[in-house]
Amino acid sequence: MAGRRARAGRGWDASPPRPGDDPSTPRPRRGRRGRAEESDPEAAAAAPAPPRDEAEVAREICLRQLAVRPRTRAELAGALTKRGISEEVAAQVLDRYDEVGIIDDAAFARAWVSSRHAGRGLARRALANELRQRGVDGEVASEALGELSEEAEAETARALVERKLRTARGEPDAVFRRLVGMLARKGYPPGVAIRAVKEALAAQSAEAAEFAEQIDADALAEAEGEIERDGRATG
Question: How many CA atoms lie within 13 A of 16 on its CB side?
């Protein structure tokens, strides 16, 4: 029709192709500002991040562990192994922490003994077992346990028994066995446990005092056997 442009396959408002353009090649899409749109942001986000330094990852793991509570070197080494940190890198990081005092197994052992004895009433045998489970060296553990005297251990045993006796029910014989078993599970040796229970029973009432005086050698030997069995079960 006269006065109108002929309709081309590219649309009514299509501009004529530029010299050298290949009609079969799609032209780049343009954004609002006339620039070609950038690549898909989702595809960019899915691209793998560059690998992190292994030592940096190891330090972060250790610091997260230490933020919860103090740890021994063995505990931190175990945490690093579980996260796939190599032995070489783990040793380097832990050695550095040793140097600057972030890791101190001796201080850990002393604090552990003091806290667990005061808070849970644990005796040296139970404390030694806990320190061993946490990887504390035997000599280091012995030094820490040496700060807990026999007198302090006996006083704690007596205090534990007196507290339990306030709510204990049953015949003196049954109460006696329950109490020595309780002390055994906390790591007290037979002599300390039996003496603590006898003294506490004797101070409780005339009936309990009479029972404590009548405990014969056979009963004591049987109680000692129960203590040893309970102690091995917790050791």
Answer: 4
